[in-house]
Amino acid sequence: MSHSVISQQNLLTKSFFKVYLICGLTTLFIGLAGFNTICQADFSPENLISTIFPRHLIFSGLIPTYLLGLLPAIQIRPQDILLYQSRKIVSLQVLYRVCFTMLPMAIIWGFANIFVLSVNGYLNFLGDLWLPILIRAVYLWITVFLLGLITVMLAIATKSKLIAFFISFGINSLSFTFVISKRPSLFFDFSTLDSNGALISKGIIMLGIALLMIPLMTFIVNRRDI
């Protein structure tokens, strides 16, 4: 079934090419936005991390772009359920879209940041800072993945993509407000100066929540009229 889902969704991806193109370009601009910041700031580990993880742009640009790119691609088709005689196909399709929308954005974002660092001559500093940057990068995309799962779960539960977007963006906004006011936010803690150990612990919690969301989403799919 998994192979069939991948083949089917790959064919449908062509229908959303423009959506993914916009997501990719927006991610590229956000990644390159650090170019001016890193030129104007004196080098320090704190400035480097804030340049790679610009929380204002992630809050107002990266995450909304991901959600808006994900929701149009979530299309539940009753004929697929009839064909496979199982609603599991819906959960697999949704998981595929959550991951497929996120993966190209993560790759583009990563290469854009490497380009900015290399042009400004800071690439050699990654030898000392690669671990905290890697931990924060993984944390960021776990956050995106979790918000994606929350969004599609809400879209299925409420049968309204608009409601799902606004609730998810509300969670995003609340977490951003917390981190700006220097309170624990969980979702945006990748942009703080917490220790590697603290971020790994929080990242494990985030990943655990994401993994719990999958059976919850499957439960909702099985209960809802489609």
What's a concise summary of this model?
It is built from 10 helices and no strands.
What keywords describe this structure?
226 residues; mainly alpha; 10 helices
Task: Please specify the SSE layout and strand pairing.
Layout: H1 2-13, H2 17-32, H3 34-40, H4 45-52, H5 55-70, H6 78-84, H7 88-119, H8 126-158, H9 161-180, H10 196-223
Helix pairs in contact: 1-7, 2-5, 2-7, 3-4, 5-8, 5-9, 7-8, 7-10, 8-9, 8-10
- Given the helix and strand composition, which structural class is it? mainly alpha
Radius of gyration: 19 Å
> What is the first-to-last residue Cα distance?
20 Å
Number of helices: 10
What's the number of domains? 1
- Estimate the helix proportion, in percent: over 70%
Query: What number is the mean pLDDT?
Result: 85
The H/E string reads: HHHHHHHHHH
Report the sheet-strand fraction. Answer: under 5%
Poorly predicted runs are none
Main sheet characteristics: none
Overall 3D shape: globular
β-strand number? 0
Characterise this structure:
This protein has 226 residues and is mainly alpha-helical. It has one domain (2-223). It has helices spanning 2-13, 17-32, 34-40, 45-52, 55-70, 78-84, 88-119, 126-158, 161-180, 196-223. The chain is globular.
